[in-house]
């Protein structure tokens, strides 16, 4: 092996390791740490090295397969045909080179016809319709195996459950789940008001929403579908891609047909690319390029595909929107859950038509990786054209006096010692009374899935915290009419309405109270499981990690979070104040006491008699348990209309299958 080959091998191995890690963060964690342009640069460098040194190509290289892997918690969906990704080009010369490769395979002739449409910056989704009804919805995963997210997809209004007209017997379509810019901005604004996590960009928000284990969370997100391609097809045929898109739209599936265009030759393609780019800001959803496909289906089949992408399609990407500015200082902000997040305060600069004055740095590891320092000159982009992000530092312009930045050991808001859980990169303030957390915690505590206190909005919470009337959620129960009515924009009537709602909240369920405490990793579903198995807030406070891990879905990470919460005297004090104020949390009946004790239910398909949430509540109220997927531990599968793959698996395992009418009789809800 020559020195050049040896150096190339080392660089290839380094690039593969980097790309695999970024793939994991993007596809599995939905938390990318680099901009798309930087990822593309690394990928292209690897592809170029492999092209120059074919002996270094391996089947597991990122260039040889679609990135990603199914996440735990979803049933795997094995595709009969792989869901491929697209090759990227970033210039007119690269686009011409792509067409030359097509010409080398098919020969010279008249201009090639192409179908062009906006490249939606969303999360890939495949939908399978059988006899016009939605049977399966699955994420891309690794291309061959994806995640079955059918229940979540069914909550998206733009995903038709039944197709219109005369659809084929089998129709497999591929598309993108996305959020419109205005909806994304509104979601982040609402989350910020509630003290909840905000999203980096619409794409990550869509991907995270689609992969929620609780379909109710997906349903609350403003997701939309745009279909761009066809997979398997039985009972219909198309001669051209443009015809396929028109027919798909006629069956009720949303497509980009009205923004797409059939183009004869690359000159027309380039004109469309430039025209769409000029109108990019006016398009209601984020796009990062144009997808160009050979229009003839017969020619698509002739051209075929490589291991990772089809030869007949390409993504022509717009250049990233980047500007250079100065990083003036790094501030550390504290979120509702106590997460300490470093934020770069920038000399304001206009990026893509928006003035940017700050950018998140996420955590210490990212700061170290990019070697970001106060006083640096940095390149800034808007990830997904929305959230500002530092792409890289320009070290040649670094002042000599700069020093590496270190996250503080103490919470900057309250002085408590910050801690970092094993395997995590984020430091957190453990103090429930931390001023920076109080507002978000109160809003969470009063939320509809928690204590359900009406008339307590963000502006009022601002006033209550600023005046010192409320320092923790328990202080809500000590509010008095006169001082409350004296606050700006309140008055006696509004104050009385709020106090009445607070009084009503004193009688609640144990599950709601546990959820309201805002314990990290404990959402509404897990709070219900804890309430059923533990029985009281006092027992939960004293439970050992071993006892906690006897509860379904409570593992080491969750038990450590629970134990850490109740080991903090400040948190225990809040709980004791709630009890002293008259808050009474009623536990659910013990599982062994209910008529469905020992039974585990899975629901599949649409229910007509009642919402699925109501059906699950009836099961739990009668001592049964709910599972998200079919396994040998499941005792009953309730099959509604258009039941999917869960029903097939249940039959294979010989489980008891109930029609909806049987279930209604079983739970006594008829």
CATH H level, superfamily name of the largest domain: DNA ligase/mRNA capping enzyme
User: What is the general shape?
Assistant: globular
**Largest beta sheet, briefly?**
5 strands, mixed
Task: Tell me the Rg in angstroms.
Answer: 28 Å
Instruction: Just name the CATH architecture of the largest domain.
Output: 2-Layer Sandwich
Could you give the distance between the termini?
A: 77 Å
Reading off the top of the CATH hierarchy, the class of the largest domain is best stated as Alpha Beta
Number of strands: 22
Overall average residue pLDDT:
85
Helix content: 25-40%
How many DSSP helices?
24
Short description:
36% of the residues lie in helices and 20% in strands.
Characterization of this structure:
The chain is globular. The chain has 24 helices and 22 strands. Helix 22 (612-621) links the parallel strand 19 and strand 20 (625-626). The model is unreliable at 67-71 (pLDDT under 50). It has a five-stranded mixed β-sheet. It has a five-stranded antiparallel β-sheet with strand order 14-13-12-15-16, with no helix packed on it. By secondary structure, it is α+β, with helices and mostly antiparallel strands. Helices cover 36% and strands 20% of the residues. It has five domains: 3-64, Helix Hairpins, CATH 1.10.287; 76-317, 2-Layer Sandwich (D-amino Acid Aminotransferase, Chain A, domain 1), CATH 3.30.470.30; 322-397, OB fold (Dihydrolipoamide Acetyltransferase, E2P); 435-586, DNA polymerase, domain 1 (Orthogonal Bundle), CATH 1.10.150.20; 594-667, BRCT domain (Rossmann fold, 3-Layer(aba) Sandwich), CATH 3.40.50.10190. The N and C termini lie far apart (77 Å).
